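forwarding from the other thread:

> can someone predict this with adenosine-5'-triphosphate?

sure thing
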Amino acid sequence: MKNRSEDGSSMIGVYRRSDGSSSILSFNGSDISRQSTDQTKQGHQSLVEWLNETLPYLNLPWEASEEELRACLMDGTVLCNLLNQLSPGSMRMGGSFEPGCVNIERFLAAMDEMALPRFESLKALKASFSDDKNTLFARRRWSLPEDHSKGVDTNFNDASQFKEASDQINKSHAQISDLLKSNSLQNTSTRSLFDMLDKLLDESPQKMNVTHAFASILRGIVQVVEQRISNQAENLKNQNILFRVREEKYRSRINVLETLASGTSDKNELKKQKQRSDAEVSNLKRELENVIETQEKQFLELKLNAQKARVELEKQLKDSELRVVEAKELEKLCETETKRWEKKEETYKSFINYQTEALQELKATSMSLKREVLKTGENYFQDLNYYGVKLRGVAHAAKNYQLVVEENRRLYNEVQELKGNIRVYCRIRPFLQGQNKKQTSIQYTGENGELVVASPLKQGKDTHRLFKFNKVFGPASTQEEVFLDTRPLIRSILDGYNVCIFAYGQTGSGKTYTMSGPSITSEEDWGVNYRALNDLFHLTQSRQNSVEYEVGVQMVEIYNEQVRDLLSQDVPDASMHSVNSTEDVLELMNVGLMNRAVSSTTLNEKSSRSHSVVSVHVRGVDVKTESVFRGSLHLVDLAGSERVGRSEVTGDRLKEALHINKSLSALGDVIFALAHKNPHVPYRNSKLTQVLQNSLGGQAKTLMFVQINPDEDSYAETVSTLKFAERVSGVELGAARSYKEGRDVRQLMEQVSNLKDMIAKKDEELLKFQSMGMPKRGLSKLRIGSPPRRHSLGGDLTNSPRKRQGSGLLGRTTSDSADERRHQNEPRSPSKLSGGAKDSNIIEDIELLGIEDSDNEERLSDISDSCLSMGTETDGSIGSGAMELALFPETSSPTKISEQIEHNDKSANVGSSKPLKHTPKPDQTRPSRLSISNTSSKALTSSKRPITGSSSAKPLNRKK
Ligand SMILES: Nc1ncnc2c1ncn2[C@@H]1O[C@H](COP(=O)(O)OP(=O)(O)OP(=O)(O)O)[C@@H](O)[C@H]1O
């Protein structure tokens, strides 16, 4: 608490007594005013005591009054000495203290320096220096800033030094906080406060990790503030000096006045002057106090501002720190980003370079392309013009294409006809291994088809026999050479002709070798069968743009006059298999060969005792005209033709041989009948001739391979075989006819089919009548020439509607009862079959066959029930005349019909290529209609599965 003396004299200090009362010591140069409300004597005495102890020369009485004490201290010398005693060196006066105000000022300055309150000077001094130990401490404490500043500048050499410095800093902080708590900071001099601030700032960089630059900035600011404060202080000092000057002036005046007073007698006047002077002094004191108060206020304001500035600065410092950290992070981020962008820039640069290069290349390519396009365009237009001209030619040619194709076919067929529709090629088998020593019966083979055979055993002129065929293949001929001369016929099949190729000869003469080949694994060994089908597929492929072909294959064997399907065991009739490639055919024929019945004989261990027939049915549709072509190829590997006597077989084997010979004889009969243009051709005499019916005759092309065994032992058989072949080759069968159906024909076929259905219904009705017990007489009228017995592979087919439809590729329908009857009445004499008794060999053959006329009826009945019935016996053609006959059955009068039949029979047998107007006799009307079976197309179109083929038994035919 600060108090001010009422008289305005300079205030030196205020001290507080221990009992709580306050005392003011004021120094005005002449006295020490003391204002006390309750001063205890004890406190006063202790003070005197302390003064005496400290400055013994004072020797103040123990009970010295305040006035005495004040008088003692008044000139300031005692105070200076006291302070010098307590704190040596604190008073920088060289040890001598002249009495006067100057001493008091020094004392006050020293107090300020030691941060002791001015107004409790003595008490503070006493308290500070009462204890010896504390004396040193106090001194140290006030000199701490200097020490500490030194410490701050010191470089710490080790951790212990650093710790020590850190401890000192902490201590000084503690002291500062103590000062703050004890409010003594308020009384601390400005200088000291700034020292402390300075000290703190020195500490800050270490403790708070503030950058040195910042600290220096802060310090600079503080210095500025300090400068300002020091300016203020300087002002104050100046003012003080001014006041002191004035005080001195007044004091000198007082002295003058006192001198004058001593010289004058007028005491009152002196008193008055003294009072005026006192008044002036007190005025000056008040002025001084006011100035001090103003300065203190200003100082406080400045301090406050400094604190605020400091807080603000600290805040800014923290912000700056944060910003610095942020800036550093940002800097790092910027660096990484910069690097990244640099990398990207590099990448983009290289990419752009690459793109630019690519662009250049593209531009160049584009330019060259443009040029090429232009060039191509020009070429294109040139070509277009060129092709336009060509196209006109082609279009013109295309108009005539069909005509040319037709012409081509016609010419081709004419060539084939000129070559002969039946051709005989003779092939001589080479000697087999182990037959080297054997003599050959073949004496000569000529290029022109001449062959001379002779028996080495017989001597004489007539021993040599000359035969002439279309071609003779010697033992060295290859399979390919043999097929080369067969190939032209294959094309005919695709043009709608029927072709039959069969191999005839004694057992072991090489029939199977020629037809199938020794093995199918090697293409070189392929026989005629495989090569023909292979060719067929190649031709269909080459023609596929103009004609769509479907090919179906059947494979049967005729064994003991029974037909057996070699491709399917389960179906009763010959099954049709659709084939699309040679591979399909190979597969099928492999199966067929495996199924073929083979039995051993003494002549040929593996000799086949059956005829095998591979039938290929082709249906072609002309894409443009929609005309349908049908062609068929029969590839027949006949059973051995040797004589029964030589085979030395008995029992079942004998029966087999007899059947084989019988069927071969029937084949001979057919050929001879055709050769002699007999009105009747006995196709029905064997299953073989039935099967081959549409391939043997006026409209078919036939090729026979006559196989010869060169062995001298087989001479007789060879001669027999060659004679047979010679006769066949001499037959002129007439022009072949292509089976070409136009749209009209197909429509007619459909009508025929409908009519057949109607007839079938009528058949059923007839059967009903029969079962109802109609008079036998009436029935007998209907059943003219009914067969005595029926045998069929498929069992009794009489009532089967399916059979009545007569479907199947092979189905060319069944028997003609009139023909049958006529056939039965025909005497089967050797002369008739052979064309005369002149040829004794034929008679010999027939004898060997052992065929009796009594067999005829049974044989014919077998044929009529055949599953593979192949057509009428009346003529070898597919009877287009028969079709017409079926179409107009009711319109023709009986007389006319009979005439027409006779006419047709004749014309058929002379090989007329024109469609025949075949009108049946009254009792033949229905059978004739039924003799047409246009089912092959149906069979082909559904030929993915086995098709019941040619077993189209016609119940009505048999019933009539
Ligand atoms: N041109 C030939 N070149 C070589 N060997 C042949 C020739 N012709 C036939 N052969 C061989 O003669 C033997 C009998 O031939 P193949 O079986 O073809 O006679 P085949 O007339 O069919 O007899 P079969 O009537 O008993 O069936 C076979 O071993 C066959 O390989």
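Residues 616 and 695 are 12 Å apart (CA to CA). thats all i got for now
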